[in-house]
User: Which sequence fits this backbone?
């Protein structure tokens, strides 16, 4: 009863603030209310008579990082306090033409560009920008770009057996002392010897090797996978970001990439207040 009264008062006094924050105020012994922040760096306020609250990060992320160490979309917290989860600020992508919609522009490659046509990618160490790998090599798989758009472009590469060659590179401006995520979607376009690559920044390798997976011999679909690496800009105000081939296999080693993002990490905060029921009074027998 006491808790209900306290919470009723709190909702009355702070209701307008909570509405503005688009948060839901609930009460009860436990909570399964959903919270979906839509903007990065916002704070969602939660205040409820409960011993726990469920915090839901925005759906559709490829990975989740909470300050508690959790990596799931939702977490249950049992104490008042400030919690946050990190994501990529996609509204601040520094890459130009990362989805290749503008074709073969805004980036450089140490491989040779081939104008899209049947068999254009027969030679090793060539690349193109096209809507279907089969369009440029009869032995490559047939599929759409990463977003599944029939008219969407991707970069298709016939990898060559020389390590340390830059496949894709672009110079970008960055803010100093900021954490960034470099994110790329890759798939093999041929089953043999899936590609091995590295992220690079300012011509130094960064992060774990990017090891692609094979695709079915039927060559009827892609296996798009997302690879990311984190980087702190330090004192830099610009960076040369790149993707470097590390596979020395002669056969196969052919792949596609799409939706390149280089954007700051941002955090969404939850400010949680949990109000427990007070202890029941002790009834002393007469
Ligand atoms: Ca695309
Ligand atoms: Ca090849």
Assistant:
């Amino acid at each position: 009863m006491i808790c209900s009264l306290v919470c009723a008062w709190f909702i009355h006094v702070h209701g307008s603030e909570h509405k503005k924050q688009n948060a839901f105020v609930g009460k009860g012994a436990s909570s399964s209310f959903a919270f979906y922040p839509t903007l990065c760096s916002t704070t969602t306020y939660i205040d409820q008579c409960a011993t726990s609250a469920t915090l839901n990060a925005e759906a559709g992320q490829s990975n989740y990082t909470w300050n508690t160490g959790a990596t799931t979309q939702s977490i249950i917290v049992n104490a008042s306090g400030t919690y946050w989860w990190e994501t990529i600020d996609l509204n601040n992508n520094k890459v130009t033409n990362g989805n290749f919609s503008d074709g073969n522009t805004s980036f450089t490659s140490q491989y040779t560009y081939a104008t899209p046509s049947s068999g254009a990618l027969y030679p090793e160490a060539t690349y193109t920008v096209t809507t279907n790998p089969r369009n440029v090599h009869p032995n490559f798989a047939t599929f759409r770009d990463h977003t599944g758009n029939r008219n969407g472009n991707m970069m298709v590469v016939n990898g060559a057996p020389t390590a340390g060659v830059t496949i894709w590179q672009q110079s970008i401006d960055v803010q100093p002392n900021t954490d960034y995520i470099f994110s790329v979607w890759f798939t093999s376009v041929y089953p043999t010897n899936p590609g091995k690559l590295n992220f690079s920044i300012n011509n130094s390798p960064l992060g774990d090797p990017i090891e692609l997976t094979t695709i079915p011999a039927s060559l009827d679909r892609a296996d798009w996978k997302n690879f990311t690496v984190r980087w702190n800009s330090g004192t830099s105000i610009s960076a040369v970001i790149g993707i470097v081939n590390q596979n020395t296999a002669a056969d196969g080693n052919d792949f596609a990439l799409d939706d390149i993002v280089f954007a700051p990490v941002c955090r969404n905060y939850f400010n949680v207040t949990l109000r427990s029921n007070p202890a029941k009074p002790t009834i002393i027998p007469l």
The pocket of calcium ion (ligand 1) is lined by residues 99-100, 145-147, 152-154, 258 (CB under 6 Å). Residues 2-89+267-274 form one domain. Helices lie at 2-20.
